[in-house]
Amino acid sequence: MIVIQLLYSCHGNKPTNVVRKTVNSNSCINSIKNYSDTVKFEKDINLYDKLKYEKKFSLENCNTDQFRDDPVFQKSVIKIVLKIYLYCISLEEPRDDLFIFYRATNTTIKTIDEYIYIMNGKKVPLYPVENLEVNTVRSVIKENKIFQKDKDIMSLLDSCNVQLKKIKHIQRR
């Protein structure tokens, strides 16, 4: 199982500490520092050898005032999730058992859109519960024009779906 944990600092002045106590030892930790900067992947003990890497994805700058219900920030997070997912399913030995954990230090602030849609259409709230488990992500679909009009999100989503079809085709052989 590959686990991604999204961590946010609600004050923007200090990087959020990575919380590992509820995370599976085979995990991929994703720390988003000060809302923007970069996303850094850290290697856990027993992490799949195929995931020994560090990549950086830039986020839009979001200050505390923009943090609440900011569609730009929400889209940035969804793009990151899709990029990580696409990487995982494009490995020589693809992993499609991706789980997302979400944690915010201030549970009164909505830091990502209320729901992410997964392929079976089930709605999963992403806040304000600490370390909330999201069902296996096969695609991230939001019935929201903001996301549907974003060419990057739709392109990433298409790439994920194409790769998943390739995996299923190989598995059927």
Automatic annotation (TrEMBL):
What lineage is on file? Bacteria, Pseudomonadati, Bacteroidota, Sphingobacteriia, Sphingobacteriales
Can you say what this protein is called? Uncharacterized protein
Q: Specify the species.
A: Mucilaginibacter gotjawali
Q: What top-level branch of life does the organism fall under?
A: Bacteria
